[in-house]
Amino acid sequence: RVALFMCFEVNDAKHVMVVQSLGGSLACYTDAGPKPQWFGKVTTYKKREQFSFSARADQGSKVDESIKVRFNDGGHANVSGVVNWEMPLACNKILALHVAFGSQHAVEQQLVRPTFERVIYLSGPTMSSTESYAARRNEFLQFVEDQAKNGIYRTVVREAKVKDPITGHEKTAQVVDIVRDAKAAPERLSPSPFAEFGIVLLPLTLNEIKYDATVEGQIAQAQRAVAQVQIAQANAREAEQRAITAEKNGQAIAMKAKWEEEEKKARAVTTAEAARQVAELDLKTAELQ
Question: Whole-model pTM above 0.70?
Answer without folding.
Answer: no
